[in-house]
Amino acid sequence: MSVDHPMIVYVGHRLAGREAGYFGTTNSLEEWTIGGQTVPMSFWHRPLHAMTDAFTAAGFRLSVISERQPVPAARELFPEEFRSLSATPSFLFFVLEAG
To answer: How much is the pTM?
Structure first.
C-alpha cells in the first residue's frame, strides 16, 4: 500500500498557512474532477508511528517501508513534478504480511 508521506503533508500544511502539527491525526477534504464529474475526496493524515502502530495492532507484520523516488521514465510524463518528487519524500510504501 502507499500513502502520502506524513512529512510532506505537514510541510504542505505549514506552507499553506494552516495550523499544522506533525503528531496529530487530521482529515482534509478536496474536490477532484474525474471524467468530467466532480467528486469529494477525503484524506486522513497521521504520523508514521500511528500508521505502523495501526498495522501491527490489526495483526500485520511490516516487511518493508520504503521512500521511493520516481522512475526515470516519469521525467517525460511529469516534467514539472519530476524534480521535486526526486528530491523530496512524497510517498511511503508499505509491504504488509498477515500475522
So the answer is: 0.75
Residue pLDDT, tens place only, 45-84 = 999 999 999 999 999 999 999 998 889 999 999 888 898 8
- The alpha helices in 1-99, defined as continuous H runs, are 6-15, 48-57, 74-77, 79-87
Neighbour tally for 92: CB within 10 Å: 20
**For residue 35, what is the enclosing H or E element?**
none
57: containing domain: 2-98
C-alpha grid cell for residue 57?
495492532
Say how many domains are in the chain.
Answer: 1
Backbone angles phi, psi at 40, to 5 degrees: -80, 140
